[in-house]
Structures are given as C-alpha cells and as structure tokens.
C-alpha cells in the first residue's frame, strides 16, 4: 500500500550506532525491543523466552544480570539466539564488565546507581574492548540525589541534565557508541523529557514508558507516550513495558510502528467494532485470524468488515478483504476487487489459506528481485 505525504513522518536526525548487528539511529528502521523475565541463571528457560520474542519480531532483547552467576550464564545464552543481547546493569559496575566479556552487544547502565566516574570509565573500557554499545538509562524513579535536591522532584529538566552529563562523560572518554533513554511511568513526564532531550542533542534515543502496567493499561499508556513521540519524529528504538510476557511487548511495539506507517511486518487487520448489521461474528473471527496468522512475517493488509456499509470501501485499500453478506455467504476481495463468495462455516480457514498464499507469493517476488539484482551486478 502506498501512503500519501500527510501519512508520512519526518524523523529527527540522530547519529547511528549499532547494537550488535542492529543499527540504531540515523536512517535505520526503528527497532523493537523487549526484556526477559526468566531467571537468567536458568539458561534453557531464558533461551526459550528469547526465541519466542524473536518469532514475535523482536530486533533486540535485554537480559538482567544482577549477579556473577547471571553474567556467567550470559556466555551460554548469547551463542544460542539470533538477536543481539543487552545486559541490564544496576548498582554493580563489575557486572557490566563481565557481561561485555560474556558477549553482550550492549550494556544498559543507570546513571543514578552505577557509581563514580572511575567506575564508568572501567565500563567504557570493557565496552570498547569487546565491541559493545552502551545505553544511558535515566529513570525518573532513580535519579541522582544531587539532582533531586536541586529540582525538588523528578522532572524533565532533572532527567535531561542527568542524561547529558553522562553522555558528555562518555564523549570525554572518546566513546560515542551510545544511546539514551529518559523513562518515567508518567506519560507527560516521559514525553516532556524526551522532547527536551531531542532538542538538546543528536544522540539516538531509546523510547519507553517504564512500568506502564498490565497488558491493557500498559498498551494504552505506551501507545499514547511512544506513539506521540514517534509521530513527532522522535525515537530510534522502542520498548513497550508491560506486566505481561515479552512477546506481547513485541507485538504491541509492532502495532504502534505499523499504526504510524513506520515499519510493516506481518498481517495488519482492519476490522469493524461490529454491530447488529454484521453478517458474521466479527469479534471471534478477528480473534481467530490474529491467532492463526501470527506466523506471517511479510507485510499484508486484511480487512474484516461485518456488513456492506464500509466493507467494500475498506477492501479497496487492502490486499485481502472480507465483507459480511446475507444468507450465510460473504464476499471476498482480492487486491481491492470483488472476487468470490464464501460460506461462513469455512470462512476462517479460507482467509488463512489466502493470506498464506499471498505471503508465499510476496516472498517469491522478493527472491526473484534479489536474484535479478545479483545478476545485474
């Protein structure tokens, strides 16, 4: 689907860094992150959770390393997964050094609790020696004491001052492979801090509303906060923080990016809220299709509309469309055109088959383009 100019976002210019193989910032696609919640020392469980996040579309996964046993486990985890791993560091700077040696692609350090400049210097040296990038992770809940005394409370100015001071320190050490986050659980506080930080520097920014809440509450807060920043062109990588499984965080992150036309992956379902005019059970149909089409990675648009009021119009704008009709038969649209009807009993299986065939055709077309490009070189 092509988009009109008013549907496109102009992104803020930022430096590009790398988290392992994933570029962050510059003109790189906005990456989606999540974090494991298994004990890192349980290597098998952590690997399994990371792989589920990968299947959901995670570009980067963060792992907590609170103790030496966890950093030892990291050395066994990193070789077994396909995404770069960020080591989450709090309080104990030696864990960062150990994580860098264990193969972490990035070290997340919290300025409010990592310690002295000398400790940061040692962390930077380890990152340099082992090819790691760094995230300066400022959090409204753990600001430095002198900033809380200066400002009286966590506010955007305190968070930005913390971030820029530590960024300047890394730059003094001639280390530039870093990104910054200024997270808060309050949407207004987080957004204001990111806006001020975006104006003050060109460092790549990691977006998030921290401790956002349950699946429903956290999704809404994250969509408002992260979505408004992305809409303004701010942000280079995102993590949706939910009291839920990591793969759900990834799915919500992708939906935010898809809704803003910033990245396209998997099936985008356009569906009506349903009403008395519906020719089939729209709610249950969409639930079933979302579940059965989770494995599709190529971008495909699908409209599921219960009646003919908006169904034909939405179908014009999607790859595959379904509109409810009478007598238990419903109209199927392909590439915006009416194509055939289908009975309600076999409708879901039929739509899944159409989407899977469309996905295979797209993959074949892309493979042919790649072969043609190689032949032309």
Taken as a percent bin, the fraction of beta residues is 15-25%
What is the makeup of the main sheet? 8 strands, parallel
Mean pLDDT rating: 94
- Total domains, how many? 2
Distance between the ends: 29 Å
- CATH architecture classification of the largest domain: Alpha-Beta Barrel
- Compute the number of helices: 12
Please give the radius of gyration in angstroms.
23 Å
Pattern of helices and strands: EEEHEHEHEHEHHEHEHEHEHEHEEEH
Class of secondary structure makeup: alpha/beta
Helix % is 40-55%
Number of DSSP E strands: 15
Contiguous low-pLDDT stretches (5 residues minimum) are none
* Spatial shape: elongated
| CATH topology title of the largest domain | TIM Barrel
Question: How are the SSEs ordered, and which strands pair?
Answer:
Elements: E1 17-19, E2 22-24, E3 31-35, H1 43-56, E4 60-64, H2 68-77, E5 85-89, H3 93-102, E6 106-109, H4 117-130, E7 133-139, H5 145-151, H6 156-172, E8 178-183, H7 187-200, E9 206-207, H8 215-231, E10 237-239, H9 246-259, E11 267-271, H10 282-292, E12 300-305, H11 311-315, E13 320-323, E14 329-334, E15 337-343, H12 347-376
Helix pairs in contact: 1-2, 1-9, 2-3, 3-4, 5-6, 6-7, 7-8, 8-9
């Amino acid at each position: 689907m092509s988009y009109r100019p008013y549907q496109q976002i102009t992104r803020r210019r930022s430096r590009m860094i790398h988290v392992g193989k994933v570029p962050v910032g510059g003109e790189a696609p906005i990456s989606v992150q999540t974090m494991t919640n298994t004990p890192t020392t349980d290597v098998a469980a952590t690997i399994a959770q990371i792989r589920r996040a990968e299947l959901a579309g995670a570009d980067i996964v963060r792992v907590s390393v609170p103790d030496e046993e966890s950093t030892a486990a990291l050395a066994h985890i990193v070789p077994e997964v396909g995404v770069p791993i960020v080591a989450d560091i709090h309080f104990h700077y030696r864990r960062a050094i150990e994580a860098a040696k264990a193969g972490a692609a990035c070290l997340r350090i919290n300025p409010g609790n990592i310690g002295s400049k000398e400790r940061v210097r040692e962390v930077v040296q380890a990152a340099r020696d082992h090819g790691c990038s760094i995230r300066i992770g400022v959090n409204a809940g753990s600001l430095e004491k002198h900033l809380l005394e200066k400002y009286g409370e966590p506010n955007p100015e305190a968070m930005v001052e913390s971030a820029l001071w530590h960024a300047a320190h890394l730059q003094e050490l001639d280390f530039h492979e870093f990104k910054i986050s200024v997270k808060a659980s309050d949407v207004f506080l987080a957004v204001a801090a990111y806006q001020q930080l975006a104006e003050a520097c060109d460092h790549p920014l990691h977006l998030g509303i921290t401790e956002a809440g349950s699946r429903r509450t956290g999704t809404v807060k994250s969509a408002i906060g992260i979505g408004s920043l992305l809409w303004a062109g701010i942000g280079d990588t995102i993590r949706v923080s939910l009291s839920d499984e990591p793969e759900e965080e990834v799915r919500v992150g992708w939906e935010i990016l898809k809704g803003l036309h910033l990245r396209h992956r998997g099936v985008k379902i356009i569906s009506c809220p349903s009403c008395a005019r519906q020719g089939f059970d729209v709610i249950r149909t969409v639930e079933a299709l979302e579940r059965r089409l989770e494995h599709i990675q190529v971008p495909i648009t699908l409209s599921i509309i219960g009646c003919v009021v908006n169904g034909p119009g939405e179908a014009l704008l999607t790859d595959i469309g379904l509109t409810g009709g009478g007598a238990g038969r419903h109209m199927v649209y392909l590439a915006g055109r009416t194509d055939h009807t289908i009975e309600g009993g076999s409708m879901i299986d039929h739509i899944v088959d159409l989407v899977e065939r469309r996905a295979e055709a797209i993959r074949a077309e892309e493979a042919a383009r790649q072969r043609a490009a190689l032949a032309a070189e």
